[in-house]
Amino acid sequence: MLSAASGPAEGSAKPPGPGPTTPRPVTRPPIRAELAPGVKANRQTPIGPLESPLPQTPQIHQPPHTAPPPTLLPETDRPVPKSRKPTPDDAPPPAPGRHAPTRAAPTPTPTPIDDAQPRGEMKVYKGLPVSQGIVIGRVLVVDDDLRHVARRAIRADAVPREQARFDRAVADSIAEIEAIHKQAEREMGEDAARIFLFHRGMLADKTLVGQIRAIIAKDLVSAEWAANQALSELAEHFRGKDNSVFATKVNDIDDLAHRLTRHLLGEEKSRLAGAQEGTVVVAQDLTPSQTAGFDRSKILGFATNLGGRTSHTAIIAKALEIPAVVGLQTLLRHAHDGMPIILDGDQGTVIVNPDDETLRTYARHIEQQRLFRLSLSELSDLPSITLDGVAVHVVGNIELPDEILKVIKSGGEGIGLYRTEYLYLTGNAEPTEADHYRAYKRCVELCQGRELVIRTVDLGADKYTQAREEVPERNPFLGNRSIRYCLRSVPMFKRQLRALLRASALGPVKMMFPLITSIGELRQAKFILNDVMEELEEDGHDFDRKIKVGMMVEVPSAALLADTFAREVDFFSIGTNDLVQYTLAVDRINERVAHLYQPTHPAVIKLIRDVARAARRHDTPVSCCGEAAGDLEYAMLLIGLGLRTLSVVGSSIPPLKRFIRSVGIQQCERVARQAMSLDSDVLISALLRDRARKAVPEAFDGRSAE
Ligand code: PEP
Ligand code: MG
């Protein structure tokens, strides 16, 4: 059981205002006055226009990415707040650990706040922006992770409902324990079964139950938090006793806490299904499949306490253009159902209970972004070439076949990375060969002759739930993931390869293996591929015998041996998400070390340079498909290092194309040379930031670097 750590993310009262990191030719709205550190903007703080309730507008919700947003806050005759002098803090620095994101946001979907009730204290949280776009909506707390019961706040008027939830969970748990007890008596005898009587007795204990109900009412917290709180105190009490009889009680109490939590959070699972229009999901964490399953007509965005920039939940959010901020650490302590919330996926800011002025500021900004987005749309049919006529191909990363439509519409020349693991994550059972084939056939059809690179399944780490494992791995990112998993599950691997090869008969398909760390692994994978080819021939299936076979370069060993690998593959695709993680020993989804996750670290750049050089020597095409390729500043470096294909999420394509069309190759090469001469990620980030802004100021809010 974890309690949410109080972190630096919480509570600066000064809403930073939408910042400058998204390319948009707009002036940033005025920012609120500074408060002393730690002071929260609230009704008592004389800085906001909170004395009047929000205007009584009807709730209007739009499906995402459609018509212009409605006016959020229609003029009324109530006092309009004074705008405040901008402060040097107007432009908040990008979240730690990375240079500013540079993509334009998807068209946001503002949702008006119709607030009959007075709003509570406004609070501002800072997290990691992982999927761009700004939305305004209402909080829906989803908290169904048994391992991390978070401190979820509730409103005073929700106490009776929460206590009733708790009572139900107690009753259900007692019924369950009684059934287990009966079975245990039959199977283990009366004495051994008695342990369950202890469990039952605890739940029937009015003192304990009363104590938990009281915590709910007094601390205004969720039932699962209150129960875990009381039971962990009790466990602590037994733990302190120097007697092994008491030690066994600790396990019993843990067991009980787990049972109660399961009953309570079992109810939570249905909460997503019941989301209303204009919902912003707030959770401790979300799984990739939860995110992929969001009802987009209802859910505008999400904010989580945990999570990192390149977690697959983040990647899915980006692919589906669901604005998202993660790593907020303590948001769940204060956010509760129905609270108005602004989620700024460009800056990584989340504001709960925003005041009127803040709402106006963001509403204006949302409209400006929408117009900026429109101005990029004319680029989609123009070639992706630099000022001096060099082609830099921009292709798309997808998780789901239908995303191809968006990639093409955005001007993508094809698909550089199709992550097939989502076939496994979205269904309950392992996909059959027919399931694979159906998905790949659809991709080939949608691509209409354009490049399509299908990556074989990259399960493991955060891409399949460790809960499915009987014994979860201690270090899943260093464990049985990706190609390792496939080489140990050959029948499963072969099913995918069969389908993939069969799809290659329908149109141009390339394939690549993820996480190759040694030549032996690559050869083994190719050996199995040959096996499958022979089987298909025997079965009379058509396929492309000369299918191009590539590999991801995403661990240092693969980068260091690029010369060796180049002799045995048709192409490389550099995966910076993992390359950064494995080069710098920084867990890509751990928000505590997110500041150390630096694609601009000189070691990472040297590895990329060496791969690009090896590829050139062997005439092996090389692309980059990590998230960093979608960052304009980083893209400048990659082009300068010699990369001529960048594979990015659909929403990154228009700004990236515009950037490419505005720079020269020599300019990029000069920047790359300068970057290679610097010795720290901070200096390199600053250099890229400066050079990219000088080269294409309009891509960065019209500002060049000072
Ligand atoms: C990468 O590691 O950069 C990559 C593209 O693969 P994934 O994010 O799917 O692990
Ligand atoms: Mg990877």
Salient structural properties:
single chain, about 700 residues, alpha/beta, Glucose Oxidase, domain 1, Enzyme I, Chain A, domain 2, TIM Barrel, 3 domains, eight-stranded mixed beta sheet, eight-stranded parallel beta sheet, 23 helices, globular, disordered N terminus, disordered C terminus, binds phosphoenolpyruvate, binds magnesium ion
Count of separate structural domains: 3
Helix content: 40-55%
Strand order of the largest sheet: 1-8-7-3-4-5-6-2
Beginning-to-end CA distance, first to last residue: 48 Å
Task: Tell me which CATH architecture of the largest domain applies here.
Answer: Alpha-Beta Barrel
Number of helices: 23
Q: How large, in whole angstroms, is the Cα Rg?
A: 27 Å
Structural class: alpha/beta
CATH superfamily of the largest domain: Phosphoenolpyruvate-binding domains
Question: Any low-confidence stretches, pLDDT <50, length ≥5?
Answer: 1-13, 19-112, 702-706
Principal-axis shape equals globular
The CATH class of the largest domain is Alpha Beta
Overall pLDDT score: 79
CATH topology of the largest domain: TIM Barrel
Q: Please describe the biggest sheet, giving its number of strands, its sense, and whether it closes into a barrel.
A: 8 strands, mixed
Ions, cofactors and other bound molecules? phosphoenolpyruvate, magnesium ion
How many E strands? 16
Q: How much of the residues is beta strand, in percent?
A: 5-15%
